[in-house]
Amino acid sequence: MGKSLVIVESPAKARTINKYLGRDFVVKSSVGHIRDLPVSGSGKQVDAKARAQAAAKTRKLAGAKREAHRKEQSKKALFARMGIDPENDWKANYEILPGKEKVVTELRKLASGADTIYLATDLDREGEAIAWHLREVIGGDPKRFKRVVFNEITQTAIRQAFQDPGELDLSRVNAQQARRFLDRVVGYMISPLLWAKVARGLSAGRVQSVAVRLIVEREKEIRAFIPEEYWEIHADTRTRARDALRLEVARHRGEAFRPTNEGQTTEAVRALELADFEVVERKDKPTKTKPGAPYITSTLQQAASTRLGFSVKKTMMLAQRLYEAGHITYMRTDSTNLSREAVEACRGTISRDFGPRYLPAEPNLYSSKEGAQEAHEAIRPSDVDVHPGRLQGVERDQERLYELIWRQFVACQMAPAEYLSTNIAVKAGDFELRTRGRIVVFDGHTRAQPTAVRAGEGETALPDVQVGERLDLVKLEPMQHFTKPPRATARRASSRSSRSAASVGRRPTPRSSRRSRSAATSASRIGDSTRRRWARSSPSGSSRTSAN
Predict the structure, then answer these.
(1) Residues that are catalytic
(2) Helices 155-163 and 11-20, interaxial angle, to 10°?
């Protein structure tokens, strides 16, 4: 009886899985995709003599027939470059990717002596498509092929997956192919327009062109923006107990106070200097904040950008390594689901490490967005008992990202944070001044995952002043401001926009980095001398740089 062959996507994952399977298994990596639609420069050599003969035949045709023949030949050439034929049931011409010939040869050799071939690629649509391509390229009896999927690379998860293998999900394969075909069709149709209107060498497509259009439209808003002047007045006062209390002028004669020039501000300052300041309202209200959901791909990218300063590319690269090493669950997901075992383990950690008050009576449940793949789980530690700082053999940035994921997962199952919010209103002549503050009563989930606050924000405790109390004015501070234009499209904002409009996924070919550079080059060139031409005829297509 021969050994079973297990094929995964990455060498790192192969090494990790190999530790959990016995000697009866050989674990090998396909190193990502092994075949795809034709890549640039991989087409067949053109027979110059045949081409000349075809051109001569075309010249002999009558005017209308010659034009129709040229259009037909041009269409056939386009279909050949795309690698798909929309007029022939979308027949695809898949080719082994350059550089993958040795990988394919090795996998075929190993498969020839294997009784069973386990396709253990990732559990998303892209992984399903890779598994299908592997089956098609290796060939042989289809009954030898089994599909195994797992959300985390742990000994328990791996063994459970191999105890109950399944079959390829062709619906997912077809979904990935449909998206891949759409990339090709849109990209190959729009790119020539881009070459004609902007410059040759730029690429366009299903997502990329939409992103560039968003950048251009935002730039138009910025250039058309006219700043408007406005003023604010803050009053520094002292209470009867000599505690400092800073207020902001909010209303004047019952209407919102927003002077638009220095003259109006100066007049208000003079009136305030002569007025008596009296507390007319104080409201103390207990409030709670619930913990946020565990991370999905888009929220992890945003949090890593905000809290750690990581780019989307860096975040996903580090997450991939953590997943392949067995430290976190699969990092491409749009579901906030958590397994019952994971929730129970998390609640045990909270009770043990934080205390029973931090543990709610029932587990916290979170709903996913419409269309989420509920078979997936949210991003979480594979073992919640592996605290940050205890990871072995990882670089510092991987450890920081793991800590972010661990804290969010633990926090999502903790009790709400409790606050006492205070609002104070002060009357000064025809003016009403206000301030508000908040103090922590019980830190709850923020004990595990502190709330991200901007500079100058945070918890503010207000002095104990009562209605009817007079305040002493220390000084008035008028401040001039100008309204600001919309911000240029930021990395974090573009990540949020693209992920909210599309489900989570990966580029199917090694060309992703090249196309990303092409997108950046396109945006850069448009931002310079060609911006006006692009604005007149901005294509509304999208990108060959897919967000799955």
Answers:
(1) 330
(2) 80
